[in-house]
Amino acid sequence: MTTELYGIAASDGIAIAKTYRLESPSLLFDKTTIEDPEAEIERLHAALTVSMQELELIKEQAEKQIGPKEAAIFGAHLMVLSDPELIGPITEKIKNDGVNAEFALQEVSDMFMEIFASMDNEYMQERAADIKDVRNRVLAHLLGVKFPNPGLISEKVILLAEDLTPSDTVQFNPEFIQGFVTEIGGRTSHSAILARTLEIPAVVGVKKLMASLEDGTLLIIDGIEGKIIADPSAEIIEEYEQRQKHFAAQKDELASLKDAATVSSDGFEVELGANIGSPKDVASALENGAEAIGLFRTEFLYMGRDSFPTEEQQFEMYSEVLKRMGSKPTVVRTMDIGGDKELSYMDLPKELNPFLGLRAIRLSLNMPDLFRTQLRALIRASVHGNLKIMFPMIATLEEFRQAKRLFIEEQEKLAAEGIAFNDNIEVGIMVEIPSTAVMADVFAKEVDFFSIGTNDLIQYTLAADRMNENVAHLYQPFNPAILRMVKMVIDAAHKEGKWAGMCGEMAGEELAVPILLAMGLDEFSMSATSILKTRSIISKLSKAEIEPHIDAILSLATAEDVKNYVSKI
After folding, report:
1. Of 77, 141, 384, 503, which one is the catalytic site residue?
2. Which residues of 349-364 are buried (b: 16+ CB within 10 A; e: fewer)?
3. Catalytic member of 77, 141, 190, 384
4. What digits encode the pLDDT tens for the residues 451-467?
5. Annotated catalytic, 141?
6. Does pTM top 0.85 for this prediction?
7. Domains (ranges, CATH) in the chain?
């Protein structure tokens, strides 16, 4: 029977394929006494063999998707599986104690994990996490339950998940993953942003999703309207196949704007940039007509690994992006780790509210050696393009000054070492905390530019978690309080002769574009797939005609009032 479910439209497009449920299985088991130890050892080795075959395939796929260095974590997992120091004691336990393979595997792996975790050596501590990951994979095969392997998907599917983490998505191959649907998340969640980067449709925040749909269910995702249709009839499939063709035709039409400047109908020119997470995203940015990289989220370089990237590894990645962009501006955000972006190899403190805790610039300043490594890599890479650096989650002027001081110190050290770099790198901040927006006139005297991060600015201003579907109605980009802050920041920048950009998802919102254009926003940065559509919208707008409406818009009482007003301009 055909079933329709609704959520939040997170990424445009239509997909039709069978579902693939991505979920962690139950790995519970009982300790049992076995009669035939040799048969049990044979069962263990069969599970080890299948696990190694899987990891070989995942490693090969990850190397293609994210590069050999970033895929090294899977090589480490393969080493664990073939380590006689680990496998030997497991087989001995099965022989000598007459216990089942599951129990022997867990007992021995727990012992090794405890030993490694207690060592002072950071590299050895990381091996504990490797053992746990590998142990769980082998356990799943021993128990005969499905282990989540997005990197092994080799047919066209639509992923279903309660939620998707950045480490899940590292393995995604858009050739096979046609789209995804999640129970949790909003339009600005990381999974939604990733879908737009990969140019695949997605619907998020679908309640009771996992309880409603089985593996292999034929599904239609409508990422434009935020709807999914399970077990569609032949007539519905035909209708959505036509919609797919229409969507593709629209994309082809917009492609003619790829090399055009972004100019309003009355001659006001702005810059359209792309938000990216890795060097491989540059191709999509340029294909979609990006005039800049307005946000390079460097934290993704730290994910999907088993240790921090070295200065040389970072230098290579930053250089690759800068070379590909040439003279076009590339705004790199220093690492924004913390909150929902955790690293398996980093022992972050457990916090009651990590989104208001030790994250982003706070973490960088708390771990200056790690921060200095990133700054050195960026400064060295600056010779290869038009680099601009910005610090995330700045709340006070003291934080900016401290970060800028470390930046200058690393420039001085590199100069003393005789290493070439561009000594005119612009250094700015993300405006994503209300205190910074309110003090924008003060910050503007010291920063080189502002980039307004509306994703966090909205949630911090309205005290509404953007990942929580229960308060999704309070996540309001068009709330007059947000619009007033945005104008305050733009005006403060212009008063000091500085430029102001926006790298939050609001920059690509069709209804927000005329407001931001009229306010004088200099740079709009968004998911690459939104660029051509936004360029088309701006070409039809007159900044001079909308400007007189700004005071009226800012005097309105609610977000709905704003949307209704703007839709009638």
Report:
1. 503
2. eeeeebbeebbbbbbb
3. 190
4. 999 989 999 999 988 76
5. no
6. no
7. 3-23+150-252 (3.50.30.10), 37-143 (1.10.274.10), 259-544 (3.20.20.60)
